[in-house]
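The instructor's notes for this session suggest beginning with a concrete chain rather than abstract definitions. Hand out the sequence below and ask the class to guess, before any prediction is shown, which regions might be ordered.
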Amino acid sequence: MNTNTNASSTLEVVNVTKSFQSVSNTIQVLKDVSLSLSSGDSLAIVGPSGTGKSTLLHLLGTLDQPDSGSIEIDGINPFGLNETELSHFRNARIGFIFQDHHLLPHLNVIENVLVPSLAHGKASPGLSDRGNELLDSVGLTERATHLPSELSGGERERVAIARALLMNPSLILADEPTGNLDRKTANQVTEVLKSLPEKHGAILIAVTHSQALADALQQRQELVDGRLQPVS
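After discussion, reveal the predicted structure:
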């Protein structure tokens, strides 16, 4: 079931800036950041801790607003929407994958995957079918009725990936998705992640310290002094 009616996903970021006020001064975290990505593209954003990677991810995920510049997803400026419209937009078009998977411990695997559908009430049969298909795609069909406490770290992260894909988002944002995993498990999750744009027609942006994950994605950019620059 495709909840995204756009034939092609697009992300346009133009001259975005973001500052935070400390006790004594203003700290400019992002300076004139620009990006242009479309369906099937994947991008790793790298750089030391504290350079603004998570801040940028929050802006792209519409969890915070830029001070200046523009962000458009599928040709829509999300910050021009009212609160209710923005909530629906975020739910339908943006999928989040976190380092700490944030699975609900009292729900089983398939119930966790279907959580994004609860914004619309009970999951429709079509979304339930999609949830099961996504579990199969990440190799977890046999774990559908297990609780998160019964899963390995890699399995929990793959559940989080399936959950992020449920509403067929245009944009998938991953924040250190392999950061808490051992090398073997991280490699397995990396293989799943790098296949997402082609399989699902989405845009994938991953913030990561993992060289292996960065190398697996199509593009790599580094945040340096608040600006994005290509990594060769």
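Then share the key points. The chain has one domain: 10-230. Confidence is low (pLDDT under 50) at residues 1-6.
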